[in-house]
Design brief:
Blueprint (H helix, E strand, L loop, with lengths): L2 E7 L3 H11 L7 E7 L4 H9 L6 E5 L7 H11 L4 E5 L3 E3 L3 H8 L4 E4 L3 E2 L2 H8 L5 H6 L5 H5 L17 H8 L10 E5 H6 L14 H11 L3 E4 L6 E3 L8 H16 L15
Parallel strand pairs: 1-2, 1-4, 2-3, 6-9, 7-10
Antiparallel strand pairs: 4-8, 5-10, 6-8
């Protein structure tokens, strides 16, 4: 199955290169990379021009006139050639089995919902400065416990990766009842995301609650959420967080109105870009 991996990015070519480097070690090989840049930076163009990837890379960019990440992602969905879409963030580095495990767990009318290991400041800086590699952190995860833990790591347990067919994974998955989309680790069949018209660009405070909005719209057409915790894992580079409480509440009310009207198709979505 051909997979289309979409990576949203904005003014962080160091993180983007770390992701591209990690993708060279993927155990699953049949995938393409789509860069959804919410900008049109020379730095990203230079990185991609000079980067020697083993995989096809498609770069979508547009003028930087405010947060338009959903537009960039929607355009990449349209440009994608795969039957299956995986969406991560531009500051999340996938484990070597990340794509393989998404594929092994893929099911029609199921959306896979994963989580991430939130690294602290020092480990994130060490990765950015090539002092340590994501490959080393993954392959020596237990041995690196003290190094990771003293740096205020969050969700260390999300770094344990079990094969999807293993008994321990099936046990953990069976007992995981709280399953929701987090846009940094999510996948589904392309046909499902096309049916709901992609990410809704009409939400005025992107990217606040766009994953919540996508989740309920997929559920409205019969797509069920399926956990891939403790399986398809990512490292998340630490950064300053923006307080979006006000934006969250405003978008929550808009989403509620859409739910009441059963508007499962994005008001402003993929159909704009399909001729």
């Amino acid at each position: 199955m051909k997979v289309s991996l979409i990576i949203p990015t904005y003014k962080d070519t160091v993180a983007l290169k770390l992701i591209l480097d990690a993708l060279e070690f993927q155990t699953y090989k049949n995938f393409e990379i789509l860069i959804a840049e919410d900008d049109d930076s020379i730095e990203t163009k230079l990185l991609l021009k000079n980067y020697k990837s083993s995989y096809e890379i498609t770069h979508y960019s547009h003028e930087n006139i405010g947060n338009r990440k959903p537009k960039a992602v929607n355009n990449c969905i349209v440009l994608s050639k795969g039957d299956y879409i995986i969406l991560i963030d531009g500051d999340t580095i996938p484990f070597t089995t990340f794509i393989e495990y998404h594929v092994l767990l893929a099911e029609q009318r199921k959306a896979l919902c994963g989580r991430r290991v939130n690294l602290g400041d020092k480990v994130s800086a060490d990765l950015r400065n090539n002092i340590v590699t994501a490959f080393n952190l993954e392959k020596n995860y237990l041995r690196n416990y003290l190094y990771l833990n003293k740096d205020n790591i969050r969700h260390y347990e999300q770094g344990f990766s079990f094969h999807p067919y293993s008994k321990i994974y099936n046990f953990l998955a069976k007992n995981n009842k709280n399953v929701h989309i987090v846009a940094s680790n999510f996948s589904c069949f392309k046909s499902d995301i096309l049916e709901v018209n992609g990410i809704d660009e009409s939400l005025p405070f992107a990217p606040s609650r766009d994953d919540t909005d996508l989740e309920w719209r997929l559920e409205a057409i019969g797509v069920k959420m399926k956990s891939i915790k403790y399986c398809a894992n990512l490292f998340h580079l630490n950064h300053e967080r923006i307080d979006r409480k006000n934006e969250d509440e405003k978008n929550r009310l808009i989403i509620k109105q859409k739910q009441e009207k059963n508007e499962y198709k994005a008001r402003k979505g993929i159909n704009q870009y399909v001729s």
